[in-house]
């Protein structure tokens, strides 16, 4: 049993996304997510999001546990290109192509699994929501820390004494 998932119009060049897609092709879904956690490419985050959503969807519709899902196929095709122009010398303009990607992911289930119950599916959905909330909270805390650091820097700028002081001449 297999199911297809799509991610269209991703604003990363297909050549760059393929580098990440090649790492996870043919692997188990859980292994693919753990690999993508350590990849330092921008496309890894979007691919991980696609796989997680595929796992959840597969679990709800087909009642298959995530341990039995394999990435059968992953294709990265070129989407539409945005055309921009850069001014050059002598009134010329050079073309800049900003490429986008279409990703097709096919998940397949292995044989010999026990179907998930409704309670297990609900727990899976709750875990995903908790993870999303915790990620949002972490981002907010990080922004607060950055603001506090900027405020501390501005305090130190005020405290620095003047090095050169003029002496007034009294007559």
Question: Helices, strands, pairings?
Answer:
Elements: E1 2-10, H1 14-24, H2 29-37, H3 42-62, E2 69-78, E3 82-87, E4 93-98, E5 101-109, H4 118-159
Antiparallel strand pairs: 1-5, 2-5, 3-4
Helix pairs in contact: 1-3, 2-3
Quick gist of this model?
With 171 residues, this protein is of the alpha+beta class.
What does this structure look like?
- It is a single chain.
- With 171 residues, this protein is of the alpha+beta class.
- It is flat and about 80 Å long.
- A three-stranded antiparallel beta sheet has the order 1-5-2.
- The protein starts with a strand and ends in a 12-residue tail after the last helix.
- The mean pLDDT is 86.
- The chain folds into two domains: 2-113, Ribosomal protein L22/L17 (Ribosomal Protein L22, Chain A, Alpha-Beta Complex), CATH 3.90.470.10; 117-159.
- It has four helices and five strands; from the N terminus they run E-H-H-H-E-E-E-E-H.
- A hairpin with a 5-residue loop joins strand 3 and strand 4 (93-98).
